[in-house]
Amino acid sequence: MDSAESPTKTQAGEDENYSLLCQAHEQFNNSEFDRCLELLQELETRGESSGPVLRHNRAVVSYYKTGCTQHSVLLKELESLTADADAPGEASGGLSLKQGAAAATVARYNRAVIYYHRHMFGTALERLAPLVARLEALEKAMAALVATLQLQLLLATNQLNRAEAFLDYLQYKLNLVATAPSSNSAEEAAVVGSAPATATTNSSVVATPGGAAVEGAVPGLGGSLQLLQLITLVLNRKPVVIQEDGTPEYAALKAQQYYIMKDFQMAAKQLMRINNECTQAGTVTPQLSTCIANNMGVIHLRVRHYAIAAKFFQNALNFDQQLARNLRQSTLQTMSSARSCEILYNLGVAMLHLRRPKEAFQCFLVPIKQFHSNPRLWLRMAEACIMEHEAKLVEEERQSQSETTPSTKPYAPQSAGVPEPTLEFAALCLRSALTLTQHYKTRFHMAAVSSEDVEAPEPKDPTQESWRHPQDNNFCNPSKPVSLESLENMLAAIYAAHSFVSLRLADHVTALEMSEKLLACERLSDAHKLLGHMYAGEALMLMDKAGEARDHLDPTFVGTLNAFDFETRDWQLKSVDAAQNVVRYNLAVAMALQNDLPQAKALLANLTHSLVASKALALRRFIDLKMGPVPGGTPS
Fold first, then answer.
1. Is 0.85 surpassed by the pTM of this model?
2. Exposed e or buried b for every residue in 382-401, given b needs 16+ CB within 10 A?
């Protein structure tokens, strides 16, 4: 456990106060918090000049006395301390000013620690920014604490490029981080969809020098910085050698490296080895079990074993519930270990692949409250709504065919205040996803242009804080930063889903608009190109513009599409032949609307695919009835 250094004599003639301060320090280390508070109170009544320090340490000791659960009270006192330090004219003497600044520095750090453990990473970064800006002016021990927390926050928010640049700054300017061993291989690992989480070090609340010591979470700052350095390099796909030291943290990082290298079998074996060794040693904790179960689920999700992945995610939730039963009365470390939002996010994706949309929708409702700026999550919620609606239509059609009398099932109205997997809610989700994606796309291209302006990387200058300049497209937290290709794919998927939902809701104008924007997308896949033309054609037909619809339903363009793009997707059109039949059927409908009945009938004669065979037969009969019997012959 980390602890603050023993108090030092700051001024001659204060031997008695210094003795009381040493006693308070000793009592705190012995967990005698009541006696420690008494000594701090005595120091205050004796007129001890370091008032801000005493206020801070009294708040920290009181926090530990209550079992490290009343962090809101501590946070309020820390905010008061920093506000007083920022106010002009509060300190008159030079020593008081120096002690007030020291107390404010640690108070700012402790505020950021509390926000970090509460998963409020953006707020923590804002609170820590003043300390990071003057990192070089801090004492080395305090600078190491601030640097460690800043690096953890950058990793937690998926700012991987900035984290790596910050590491370089720490190494070349402050000499806080040792160089990590690297391999001789020049081959980089591939980018992955969702890297499994690893057990990282936790920051701790500390006390100002000359006051009460506060326990930390990991033994030694050097070890935690070295681990964070390795994590940063692994996540940035740098070839590094991870020397396991017998702890689960380094072993889990090794598993993550296997995962990034797409060696999923070795990643799973590594995780199981960690579980077995910790079980034999009796060191298994709910945090470790949650981490292993979630990461096993991510591995199986990656290799499309969706049922197994869902089972692992459900196990991870069960372990996590042991930690999150009563977060209001939990310690900060326990609160930080809770990962329900991320696990439910993963479970929702698995449920979508298993075609269980109602369960997927319920899973997404929890993380959307925390990651409400994630357009990918809004899209997944919309997909769950669409899948649930289509499943209901299939079930109603099946029941109507099997029942001889109409159903008398009563209508159950839904509450407008409770989200339900309906098409109306899907339209709301898609509007949110589209607005966010367009906003991030603008920011993305601005970052891309600024990075392309530099033809060659400039040499590192240890005197400059160049780590602030790199940008990460990390707007889809908790998943990885977004590449330009994945951004375009996501935007195309949003347009396609928005057009489909608008057609189902009879909003033909919006459906046509979304389909046209889909067709105008860059790097459009063949599958989305087909959907764009299909939805545009259907919208135009419903708007009594069958002539314009025929321009989108030319079956010749289907033959130029890549068959592999159809075969690898989880949908009904598994081949180019199926796509040809669907497009030809829709073209026949457009011809029928224009009273071009003979040509429509001839087109329908060759449609034999199971997807359209029954509908083609029904349309052909309708055309026969409309055309009437052939003169001199019998009806066909």
1. no
2. bbbbbbbbeeeeeeeeeeee
Contact 112, 149 (CB under 8 A): yes
Cross-strand bridge partners of residue 240 = 182
Type of residue at 315: N
Partners of 182 in the β-ladder: 240
**Per the structure block, which two tokens stand in for 278?**
């910790």
User: CATH for 1-184+202-223, among 1.25.40, 1.10.3470, 2.60.40, 3.40.50?
Assistant: 1.25.40
Helix then strand count (H, E) for the chain reads: 27, 0
* The pLDDT of residue 447: 52
Q: Whole-angstrom Cα distance, residue 604 to residue 607?
A: 5
- CA-based nearest residue to 91, from 50, 54, 138, 57: 50
**501 vs 424: CA distance, rounded Å:** 8
Give the per-residue pLDDT at 99: 65
Question: What's the DSSP call for residue 481?
Answer: P
Distance CA 167, CA 99 (A): 30
Question: Which of the 8 DSSP states describes residue 172?
Answer: I
Residue 49 is predicted with a pLDDT of 54
Write down the pLDDT at residue 98: 63
- Residues contacting 68, CB < 8 A, separation 6+: 331, 332, 333
Alpha carbon distance 193, 230 (integer Å): 20
Segments of the chain scoring below 70 in pLDDT: 1-14, 47-50, 85-100, 176-223, 326-328, 403-417, 445-466, 629-636
Task: Give the Cα separation of 216 and 4 in Å (integer).
Answer: 9
Burial class from Cβ neighbours inside 10 Å (0-12, 13-18, 19+) for residue 112 reads: buried
> What residues does each domain of the chain span?
1-184+202-223, 370-396+419-449+473-524, 556-631
- How far apart, in whole angstroms, are the C-alpha atoms of residue 342 and residue 479? 9
Distance of CA 527 to the CA centre of its chain: 27
CA atoms within 13 A on the CB side of 386: 24
Q: Give the model's pLDDT for residue 445.
A: 63
186 contact partners, CB below 8 Å, separation of at least 6: 239
- Tokens coding 215: 């326990």
Q: What is the DSSP letter of 182?
A: B
Residues 6+ positions from 195 with CB-CB distance below 8 Å: 235, 256, 259, 260, 298, 480
Any residues with CB less than 8 A from the CB of 206 and at least 6 apart, and which? 2, 4, 106, 109, 110, 145, 214, 216
170 DSSP 8-state letter:
I
Q: What is the pLDDT of residue 1?
A: 33
411 CB burial (10 A radius; 0-12, 13-18, 19+): exposed
* Nearest C-alpha neighbor of 533 from the set 493, 492, 497, 583: 583
Place of tokens 């929890």: 366
- Buried b / exposed e over 520-557, threshold 16 CB at 10 Å, is ebeebbbbbbbbbbbbbbbbbbbeebbebbbebbebee
Q: What is the pLDDT of residues 452-485, one digit of tens each?
A: 444 444 445 544 566 777 788 888 988 888 888 8
Neighbours of 325 (CB within 10 A): 11
Q: Is residue 148 a contact partner of residue 203, using CB atoms and an 8 Å limit?
A: yes
Whole-Å CA distances, 567 to 50, 105, 360, 574, 579: 73, 59, 25, 5, 11
| Cα–Cα distance for residue pair 28/63, rounded to 1 Å | 12
